[in-house]
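Tip: read the tokens left to right.
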């Protein structure tokens, strides 16, 4: 079955950086677009980033564009999210999901606070 395991979250100060990972199994990662979403307490799930399967073309939500970079390693069935210049409003649980497949990981908590 499809499995997604996010990791790399933590507590960092504003202006800091984190790199999230999403290790996948149970589907053909190399031919599947992937997405990152996040959900803050009391808010709806928000689109963060999308990376295409073959050309690794990336798309970003307006609130993270210019600060976050999504990438993937098809040999490792893994997607990454490099997050720089983090802000308190980036605090959320971050999830990865394959495009077109209704599957989600457990998420990884990112907390930005001084």
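Filled-in amino acids:
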């Amino acid at each position: 079955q499809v499995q997604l395991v996010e990791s790399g979250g933590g507590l960092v100060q504003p202006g800091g950086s984190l790199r999230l990972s999403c290790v996948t199994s149970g589907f053909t990662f190399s031919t599947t677009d992937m997405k990152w979403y996040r959900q803050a307490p009391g808010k709806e799930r928000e689109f963060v980033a999308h990376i295409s399967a073959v050309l690794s073309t990336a798309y970003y939500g307006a609130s993270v564009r210019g600060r976050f970079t999504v990438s993937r390693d098809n040999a490792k069935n893994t997607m990454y999210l490099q997050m720089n210049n983090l802000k308190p409003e980036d605090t959320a649980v971050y999830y990865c999901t394959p495009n077109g497949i209704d599957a989600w990981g457990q998420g990884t908590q990112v907390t930005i606070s001084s």
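Residues 73 and 79 are 6 Å apart (CA to CA). The longest strand covers residues 18-25.
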